[in-house]
Amino acid sequence: LQGSAFAATKKSSIQLSDEQRAAIARVNDYINSFTTLRGDFVQMSDKGQSVKGVVMLSKPGKIRFDYAPPSPLLIVSDGKWLTIKNKVKERGDQVPLRSTPLRLIVAPKIDLLAETIVLSVEEADGLTSVALADKKDQMGGYIVLIYDNTQETLQQWVIVDGKGRRTTVQFANLEKDVQLNQKLFLETIKRKESRN
After folding, report:
1. Cβ(121)–Cβ(24) under 8 Å?
2. Residue 112 in contact with residue 27, Cβ under 8 Å?
3. Between the ranges 4-18, 35-49, 80-94, 179-193, where is the mean pLDDT highest?
4. CB-CB neighbours of 98 under 10 Å
C-alpha cells in the first residue's frame, strides 16, 4: 500500500482519476470534521525505535505529543511555533509551524487538493493512502496520511523530511471534539546563549 507513496520524491502532482479525487475528499472531510482530537499514538523512527504517548490537537494550530516515560520528548505547537523539547533538560528547538506538514492537520479548514501537491493515492484492504507535499513547504518533505475507510478514522501518518528520513505515527482510540485544556499547548524552553 505504501510503496509508491514512499517512492514519490518528485514534487509534481499526479493526474487524478475521479476515484482518487473521491479518496482525497474522504480524507479531507475527516480532517475538517473535528475541532479537537485526543488519542494514543505509537511513533516509529526509520531506525526501528518506537515510543508511545498521547496526542492532543486543538484547531486552529495546536497539537501536543506527550511521550510516555522513559522518553523525555515533548512536541507542542501553540499555533505559531512547533516546540520540540527534552523535558528532563528543559531544552529544545522551535520551528515555525507553517514550515511543517503538521500545518495541514491543524488548519481550521483545509482543502488538500488546493493546498498540496498530490504525490500518490492508493486504496487497498479498506485503507486509503495519500502522499501529499505542502505547496508552502520549503524543506522538501511530504506527509503520507493513511485513512481507515471502514472505521472512518485516521490510522497513521508518515512524515518524510527533506533528507528522506521517515517518522511513522500510528493512532488508536482517537476521540473527536473532546474538551482540552488550552494551557496544554503552551510550552517554554530554555534559550541557548546567543553568540555575537
Report:
1. yes
2. yes
3. 35-49
4. 16
7, with CB counted inside 10 A (0-12, 13-18, 19+), is: exposed
User: How far apart are alpha carbons 31 and 129 in whole angstroms?
Assistant: 14
The residue ranges of DSSP E strands in 79-189, in sequence order, are: 81-86, 91-96, 116-124, 127-134, 142-148, 153-160, 166-176
pLDDT digits (tens, 9 = 90+) for 42-90: 999 888 889 999 999 999 999 999 999 999 999 999 999 999 998 888 7
Whether the Cβ atoms of residue 166 and residue 146 lie closer than 8 Å to each other: no
Q: How far apart are CA 113 and CA 118, in angstroms?
A: 7
- Find residue 77's DSSP bridge partners: 63, 82
For cell 501518518, what's the residue?
157
- Residue in this structure with the C-alpha cell 507513496, named with its chain if needed: 5
pTM assigned to the model: 0.86
Q: If we measure between CA atoms, which residue out of 127, 123, 157, 154 comes closest to residue 143?
A: 157
The amino acid at 178: V
The total of other beta-carbon atoms located within 10 Å of residue 30's CB is 17
